[in-house]
Amino acid sequence: MHRAKISVIGAGNVGATCAHWAAAKELGDVVLLDIPDREGVARGKALDLLCCGPIERFDSSVIGTSDYKDIAGSDVVIVTAGLPRKPGMSRDDLIQTNVRIVKSVSEQVREYAPDSFVILVSNPLDAMVYTAWKATGFPTNRIVGQAGCLDVARFRAFLAMEIGCSVEDISALLLGGHGDDMVPLPRYTSVHGVPISQLLDNKTITACVDRAKVGGGEIVKLMGTSAYYAPASASVQMAEAVIKDKKRILPCAAYCQSEFGVGGYFVGVPCVLGGSGVEKIVEVELVGDEQKLMDESIAHVKDLVRVVTEMFPELS
Ligand code: APR
């Protein structure tokens, strides 16, 4: 029986929390990797987490390392390496440093885990997933970015608070980029099939959309650094879909050619995630403002990619 292996690059807040969720769900063996200067942190957190096994009842091995040889044979690699936001910063402010980091990480992933499925979490997400695609040379079904799963979770959490129902019963869909660029689709949002427009007024729905858009910023302001519980939970949700071949429909930053008129960029869209990675992009009908917002989101992705290729022509 194949035992799955999940490697998490970056043992900071998001990375360590990914390792935590992956181990707690017993998705497979977990490797937590950081730069040599932070190897002690990676090893310490991994050991601490491993010791939860007897209590939480998982038998996953969890190791910390700075040696990329340890990621060999990974089924899924989650990339969280890079700087987080500080108060007053936008995700785009991180671009130069994080492209450099994600490029170097991706080159190692290409070498040591050439058959893995890669989930990018570092920000600005749309630029990072492009960078990883170019630097790994992986086929587009094996690279995605995590943004939509987090944004939609925030949206569902805020809707549930307003409606006073279980978060589990809310089914929602979002497209487009992370945060400000997201394309909310209240038309496709329901509580067990009951459209939310029958349960909440437009003003409240818009307030939930707006809060989901800036949910990351709200947390940065409160605690001085980026969120990590929900970003990690969303990333592991995607890893689980691939490892268990669940064929879940989840919003991911995936490569779209003709779909949604994108023309060859990674954009947030609903995907079927299963054992072969991105198995299908699910095209949904967009009307009026939805298409306009999607076009704006695609334009922003193109701008970000242009900035990346101007800074690093080798990624063109
Ligand atoms: N290889 C491996 N790890 C690296 C590298 C590298 N080249 N460069 C930096 N790191 C590590 C850092 O040493 C640090 O441990 O990445 C980790 C980042 O952790 P934090 O500073 O705690 O940042 P975190 O909150 O985890 O956010 C990481 O995820 O959600 C995004 O916007 C967020 O871009 C940020 C990323």
Characterization of this structure:
By secondary structure, the protein is of the alpha/beta class. It has 2 domains: 5-145, NAD(P)-binding Rossmann-like Domain (Rossmann fold); 148-305, L-2-Hydroxyisocaproate Dehydrogenase, Chain A, domain 2 (Alpha-Beta Complex). The protein has helices at residues 13-24, 39-50, 53-56, 95-112, 125-136, 148-163, 202-213, 215-223, 229-243, 289-311; strands at residues 5-9, 29-33, 62-65, 76-79, 117-120, 143-145, 170-171, 174-176, 182-184, 190-191, 194-195, 248-256, 265-274, 277-281. The strands form 4 sheets. Strands 3-2-1-4-5-6 form a 6-stranded parallel sheet, with helices on both faces. Strands 7-10-11 form a 3-stranded antiparallel sheet, with helices on one face. A 3-stranded antiparallel sheet has the order 12-13-14. A hairpin with a 5-residue loop joins strand 8 (174-176) and strand 9. The mean pLDDT is 95. The structure holds adenosine-5-diphosphoribose. Adenosine-5-diphosphoribose binds next to helix 1 and helix 4.
What tags apply to this protein structure?
single chain; 316 residues; alpha/beta; Rossmann fold; L-2-Hydroxyisocaproate Dehydrogenase, Chain A, domain 2; three-stranded antiparallel sheet; 14 strands; binds adenosine-5-diphosphoribose
Question: Quick recap of the structure?
Answer:
The protein is an alpha/beta fold.
